[in-house]
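<amino_acid_chain>
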Amino acid sequence: MNTDALLKTFEQELRGVSDKLKEVLRLIRSNRPSVDLVGDLKVNYYDQWFTIKQLGTLSVLPPRGIQVTLWDKAAVGPVTKAIEEAKAGLTVSSEGLTIRANLSALSNERREELAKIVKKEVEEARIRVRAYRDEANKKLKTAETESQISKDVAFKTKEKLQKVVEDTNRNLEASLEGKLKELEE
């Protein structure tokens, strides 16, 4: 058994868990506007499906606004409709080729609700990390019992696996704290 390959695969799996969590957290709305709130929304435009970022440029208008400047006047209606139907808490207005979406302030109840969702997502990521660790440990145990690797190599590899797990858990915790702080703004 090649322990280096096992470690490399394990690190990639945990990086995938961490990246997926960051993607999920990025999509959870906070008081801070982001073009990600509307950029990937699907729009039916001339019987074809496009994302809003394919139909125009997006920018943030401080303190709570998002501006979409479209390239074609015919896209204004469908894009406005898509943003309204997204139920992201945005108030939409349009003028010419420009659409402005303003983010309403979060209520304390909604803030607490979003904090629970964030904590749940982070906990699910931790569970996936533990599952990957258990799987890797089983592979090591099997290799050790079949005399493919020595006890020494198995022990050292387990230590390396645990270090990767601890690093990943620190990253997950940092993501959690960052998102909770963002929700409090």
